[in-house]
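Re: Re: C-alpha cell formats

Sure, here are both.
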Amino acid sequence: MTPLLEVEDLHVAVGGVSILRGVDLTVGAGEIHVLMGPNGSGKSTLANTLLGNPAYQVTGGSIRLNGQDVTDWAPDVRAKAGMFLAFQDPETIGGVPVLQFLRQAMSARKGMDLSVLEVRMSMLEWMDKLGMDPSFGDRHLNEGFSGGEKKRNEILQMALLDPELAVLDETDSGLDVDALGVVARGVQAVRDARPALGVLLVTHYTRILQDLRPDVVHVLISGRIVETGGAALADRLEEEGYEQWKR
C-alpha cells in the first residue's frame, strides 16, 4: 500500500542557512506521528516545508502525498490535495468572520461553491462536538481570541476541510492544562470521524500525548531524525531529555 506521506532525504535551507539535513519520514493513513526535539532542531521548518511555505527552500530530496511528488507544488495546490497545517501562532484577519473564511476554504478544498447555509450547518455540528459557542462563527478570524480559542479554531478548520494529512505545528504551545485537554480531545474527535486521517504532531512536550497517544514518535536533532520508536519513546524523552543524541 502506498504511504500517505513520504519524505525522502529532505534538505531545506532558510535564508541560505541549511536547517534540515536529510530527513526521512513516512506516515500511513490513519496514523498519528509525533515529532519532538529541542528548540532550533528544525521541527517547524519541516512543518512549513511540508505545506510549501516559500520562505523554506528545498535543496534536496522529495515530498510525496499518496505517491505523488508534491515537492514543487504551491501551498494552495497542496491544500486542495488534502494537506492541512495548524499554525503555531495562527494569523489574525480583521474584518473576516470565521464563517466567511471557512466557506472560502471549504469551497476551494471541494472544488465547488458552497452556500453559507451548508457551511453554517456543518460548522454548527462540529462546534457542538468541540464544545464551542455557536456565536464563535460570527467573530472575526482570531481577532481577540485567547490562545485556547485560536487553537480550537484551528481544530474546527481541520474538521471542516476534511484533509488527508494534518500537520499540527506546536498546537499545544502556550496552553494551560484544561485548554490542552480540549484541543487533544478535539483532534481525537476529528480522527474518530475521519479514521483515515494521518496526523503529524510537532511538539516540545509530552503533556498532550496523555490524551492523544501516538503510533510513532520521531526525535529531530540538528536537522536530522536520530531516533524513531513507539509511544514509550516520548515517555523516555520526558525523563531523560535529548542529551544522549547531542553527543
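Second one below.
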Amino acid sequence: MNTDRLSEISATEAIELFKSRELSPLELMTRIIEQSSHTEPHINAYCDQYFETALTQARQAEKRYLSDSHTPSLLDGIPMAVKDDTSISGKRTTTGSLLNRNHIDQHTNPSIERLTDAGAIIHARTTCPEFCWAWVCYSKLYGVTRNPWNTDYSCGGSSGGSAASLAAGSTVIATGTDSAGSIRQPAAMCGVVGFKPPFGRNPQDAESSFDMYNHIGPMARSVDDCALMQNIMSGYHALDHTTLPRKLILPRQHDSLQGLKIAWSMDLDHYPVSDDVRYQTLETIDALKEGGAIVDEIRTPWADEAVELAGYYGDHIHSPAFEQAIANHPDEVCDYTRYFAKQNKSVTSAMLQRSINASGKIWRDQFGPIMEQYDAFICPTTSVQEVPAEMKPWEQIAVNGQPENIQNTVLTILFNMFSRCPVLAVPSGLTATGMPTGVQIIGRPYDDAIVFRIGSNLESIRPWKRTASAL
C-alpha cells in the first residue's frame, strides 16, 4: 500500500490491513520510525526510544499474521508510545526530572501490561514536564517538546509528548495520565482524541491507585481507536484495590444522536474564552443539533468556587514531595518546580478539607441535578491554543487581548473533582492561525458509552485531519 499515509493510519484500519496481508506490522513500524526521524528534531516528543526491540517484535508479529493458524490479538503489531510517568519493567521512568534519570522500574503498570499483552509494541517513551506539573512540556532533562502544528507553540502538558507524537504521525496509539486535565489539554492543543476514564475503571500502579483525581487513559487520532484501547485497559485488577468489579465493553458501532439531551457551557461562568475557540465550539454545538440532539446552553455560576477548590487537592497532597526535591536537589529541579512548590505550600490541610466537603455539596446541589436532566455536558477543553512552547507558569498569556494566567485557560480540573464522570476530549476545529481547538464531552458517573457515542457522531459529522500539516 501507499506508505505515505501510514503516518496517519488508525489502529483499527492497520489491524484489518494486517489480517488481509496488504500491510505488515514490520512495514508499519519501519514507517513510524522513519517518520520520527523527520519529526523528532523539530518537536522532541520522545524521551527514550526502543526501536531495535520494536522492529524485532514487529517481525514476530508479521510472522504470526502470515501463519494460517494465527488468531490475532486486538492490537497485535500496533506501535504504541507510553508517557514517561508510567512504569515499564526494565525501563527507566523519570517523570521528566533529572532526579529520576537513573530510575529503572521493576514492574509494568497494569493498564500498560494489558495493552502489550494485546499485542501493542512500545517503540518510545514520551516526554512530560517535571513531575507532570505544568500546562507546557519542557524540562531540564529533556528540553522543549513542541506542537507539530506550529513549533513556536506548546503541545500542552503533562501528556504533551504523547499528544505531539500522535499529531506528528510518529506513533499510532499512545497513553497518558490525567489528574487535572493532563490527557485532555494536550489532546486539544494537538488535535487528537484523549479519554479520562472514571475513577476505578482502569488499573493503576499501587502508588497512584488511591488518588481519586488521577487516571490513566488512552490517546489516539480517532474515537474508535480510543475505544479499542479503553476496552483493553479497563476492568478489575487484583493488584489495584480501587478497580471496579465489572469490566465495561464499549460498543464499536454507535447509535445516532437522535433524542439525546446535551447541556453545554462556553466558559463554565469562570474562564475567558478566545474568539476562535468560541467560534469552533458553536460550530460543534450546531453539529450536535444537526445530528438530532437536543442541546441547551446552561449557566454554571457555582463553577467559579468549584474550580478554585478542586485545585487544592493536588496542591496539598503533592506539596511534601516538591519541598523534598528542592531541599535535596536544589540545582537539578526546574525553575517552575520552585514556583509550584511555593503555590502548593500555601494550601493548608483546612483548605483541603474544605475542598473535599464542597465537592460533595456542589455535586448534590449543582452539577448532579444538571446531569440528571441531561445525557451529557459539553464545554471547551482549553480557551486559547497559541501557548508559547517555553512559556513560564508565572507569565501571562493574552486571551482576546486580555492578560491571563495559563492555569485559567484549561477547563478540565472540575471533572477531576467529579472523578467518576467519564470525559472524552475531541477536536472541534482550527483557529485562524491554524492551531487545533477541542471540546470535552462529560458523561454521568460511569456512563462511558455515552461520551464515545457523542464523540463518534461528531467525528462523522465534522471529520478532522488526523495529523499536523506543519512538519
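The chain has one domain: 3-461. Residues 396 and 404 are 5 Å apart (CA to CA).
- S.
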